[in-house]
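Lay summary. Proteins are chains of building blocks that fold into shapes, and those shapes determine what they do. In this project we predict the shape from the chain. Here is one chain we studied, written as its sequence of building blocks.
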Amino acid sequence: MGKPLAIVTGGCGFIGSHMVDVLVDKGFAVHVVDSLVGGREANIARHSANSDVRFFKEDIRALEPGNAIFDGAKFVFHFAGIGDIVPSIERPLDYMSVNAQGTVQVLECARAAGVEKLVYAASSSCYGLAAVPTDESHVIDTKYPYALSKYQGEQAVLHWHSVYGLPVNSVRIFNAYGTRSRTSGAYGAVFGVFLKQKLAGKPLTIVGDGTQSRDFLYVTDVAKAFYAAADTDRVGEIYNLGAGNPQTVNYLASLLGGETVALPKRPGEPDCTWADITKIKTELGWKPEVSFEQGVSKILDNIDYWREAPLWDVDSIADATKTWFRFMQEKQNG
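And here is the predicted shape, written in a compact code that computers can read:
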């Protein structure tokens, strides 16, 4: 009897590549589906010599039911999508196409293959400016196209469960961080911005006064949570995923070290994200293992990975976020 098969869409990306690690360790054969947009080829090399891991360069929107990639799959982990938040204001069509319609294509492939479980990588951005700590019953308030597209993908996932009986769970990620995060493309996650600035000897650009806090969870803990969401009898569930222990941007900057410079606070962004992780801990027996300090240390040990990342400064960030400010400020002012 051969090894069980798992599919990881976006498996050359940040969280997806760590998901492949977990699955290989669990004795799975893995099919990685990735469009390789944004220079993700480096993560292929990690498993290129492993005959149990096969790579398929595919745009998820082009996947059709009956695709042989999914034949015999036990689990599908769906991470593929566009993850940059700020550019979603300028590119709503792309976000809706990839994150919503692309998810539907994956669902249909999974349904045709008769998979035992599909786990969807949802986003806590669906909660908007949420009350904290935030549990799964919190009101939905999507503030920008990225949040909407990821939430509509989740709605499709749950719809395929209720209508077609596809076994699914959805995991709403708060703030994942760690090694192998994206180093190219649009202005985005704070870690990548800070690490390149540190390498270049430039000041760390802190939005607002730096007291805003984020529920950072190290990426290996994220991948283990997704496996727990697959390896369970529970279906049709939504789980919030964070460390349950928010950290301020100022504290992150102090751990990284170096000078700082302040940027204007962005409208439409929460002062605090904080996942209530009671449900995932209770129902799936998962808990975070890597402390924030340990996680930052791991990143600093691998800081050279970000050497080729774009260097952002006050002026380039202002240019990259000008459309965001225009639309979000207008919305805020009502």
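What the prediction tells us: The chain has a mean pLDDT of 93.
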